Structure formats: structure tokens, C-alpha cells
């Protein structure tokens, strides 16, 4: 007895699905990380520069003198952010 078209189509779908599942899935690579070194160097140097300027001329700069000891946190935060960005480098 001849098979129906519906049965053939269902079998073809099952075979195609089985073949797709048998193939290993491709892993997508992350994008380029060329931005990381210049970024972490820049952020780290800004943190160090903030601290140096604060210690040398912090009392002469109006907004820095208003911040007081928060300047230390800002400078250290910049260096910590640079370290965090550096962990993204591959």
C-alpha cells in the first residue's frame, strides 16, 4: 500500500530535526577586545592624576577643596575601575 504524503512529510521533518540535533552547535566568539588596554590605561592614569593633583594643588582648586577627602575615594575608584577593566583583557 502506498504511503500518504503527510506521513512522508512527517518522516522528513523528523529526520531533519534529528540531523540538526546531531550537529554540534557553534559557539559565538565574543567581539574584539582591542578597546580594553587603552581604556584601562587611561582610566588608571586618570585616577593617579586625580590623586596627584589633589595632593599637590587640591586646596587651590575650588571643587576639589569642596570634595575634601572624597578626592581619595575618586582617585582610588579610578584605579580600581582600571583593574576591573583589565580583567576583560584576553
Give helix % range. over 70%
| Terminal residue distance | 63 Å
Radius of gyration over C-alpha positions, nearest whole angstrom? 30 Å
Shape: rod-shaped
Beta-strand proportion: under 5%
Structural category: mainly alpha
Give a description of the structure.
The chain is an all-alpha fold. It is 70% helix and 0% strand. The protein has a domain of 60 residues. The radius of gyration is 30 Å and the shape is rod-shaped. The protein starts with a helix and ends with a helix.
Write the topology of this structure.
Layout: H1 5-22, H2 36-57, H3 62-67, H4 70-86
Short description:
The chain has 90 residues and is mostly helical.
Task: Provide keyphrases for this structure.
cell cycle, Cell division protein CrgA, mainly alpha, transmembrane, about 90 residues, single chain, CrgA
